[in-house]
Specification:
Strand order of the largest sheet: 1-2
Radius of gyration: 24 Å
Low-confidence stretches: none
Mean pLDDT: 93
Helix content: 40-55%
Shape: globular
Number of helices: 20
Number of domains: 2
Order of helices and strands: HEEHHHHHHHHHHHHHHHEHHEHHEEEE
Length: about 550
Amino acid sequence: MQFLSILLFYTIFYLVGRGIFIFVSKINNFKFEDNYKLFEIEIKYFYTVIALIFLGNFNFLINFFKPITNISTYFFICFFILFNLFKSFNFKKKYDILFSFLILFILSISTFNIGFQYDAGYYHLNFQNWIRSEKIIFGLSNLHTAHALSSINDYLSASFWVNGNFIYLHYQNLIFLTTFYSLLFRYLTGNSKRYKYGSLGVIIFALLDNFGVNGGRNGFLTIQGIGKPDVIFGIVFFLASIYIFFLHRRKSTVHEIIFLYVLVLYSFQLKQFGAVLLIYFFSVLYKLIKEKKLEIKNLLKPLLSLSLILFPWIIKGLILSGCLLFPLEFTCIDFTWYQENTALDYSTETARFNNAFYFDISFFNWLQSWLSVELNNTVAQNFLFSLLVIYISKNLLFKKLRSNNNSLSIEDIVYITLTIIVWIFGSPHPRFLFGFLTFVSFIIFATYENLEFRYIKYKKYLNLIFILFFTISVLLTPRISSYYSAIDQKFNIVRLNEPKVEFYNYYKSWVMPADGDQCWSNLNCLENYVQIEEKIKSGYKIFTIDN
């Protein structure tokens, strides 16, 4: 049964994540408890996500010295699961984990008609096969330029190639989505008003995603085909945003700030767009230190230690493409494996493809052009309508009791403005704003923490109403067609194989797709008509283009 497979996957990484927290608590000499809270929610809700974050970085680091194999993944899993033996389970609310299983079950319905997203065949699977077959390769982007954009999600996905079945790559998306909805449910039914009402805004936003122009789609998280990290990035971006938002509105512990920094760094590893979170995080941190609300001495060592991951991450980019931060041309160095203007050409092509703003036309002409794309127009209209509904709902259902300090600060305004600017000038596709748009729906409610439900005699039903909205939102996350597919397939185990593609010989042992531009996992496949020369130096492969 398919769900049992996903449940086993979830349980394994739940135990791995718990083991990681126990391991960290032992080496840092602090008391660990399952009910210890981060951001007013029990730490157990973050176990699975932390496990995947650590596994992705583990794979990334070992790839400097060896290929990523299933054996190394099994070692990682077994090592951290063993730490569960050092601490007995202590859950105050045992039904919480069962509710997470129920969310996982509903979301797993999407497995029955999931397929590959286009970029999976274009470069993701190809890159994953390279890091599974070889240690890091100098100039790998010469085979396919997009390899220079390798995400930490590719290093994580490389662990889930199992006997040619790629369905397990979808499981990691389900884990992040389950964590996202589990957190929302806990906040919705909890006592923290700052998170409770903000989460209500998100749930309304999620519901409205299913209605509107062209049948809906307002920028909320959606289940994508295998190969794209946009949903995972959106969830991490959203969580980091709301936790930074409250960082200077409530007293935060050192452990919360450290954990938050892990999320911020991971968002940057997923997409360079996550750099705006780094700016937001450190601007708020600076404000707290300046106002003497936070002592830097307790944070300096752990933050610097975590920041060390940025050094190999940037070096990785230099090795793969010759650029510290591809596709920023000014960060590129004239190594033998770097082709001049490759980064500039790629960034220009990508920006044009995604209809990014250039100063060669007026902003309003650009906006008109951007809105002429049906998807952009649909999302823009539905998003604005959703914001209006959320705002009206807040004022109809609640009344403000007294003033509070939750209004937008200068740091919040700069962050929101910077995010929009970077998006407009970079790649203004709606999928890159999943997390940001969800964050906006959250803060419409969250900026008014001191709210009171207007209809007092119905207040006892408030949580039931929240749960109803929540349940409908989760049920509508998988497509309706997924439910039909699950029934047709009788909930049996799903297998997703790589399609068979024909190639033709191009140069020496190098080939190109006979139709289209998807290399899939073929390691001899090239993106363009270039002549590749291979060298080996000190045990490392170097690919250069023979001009």
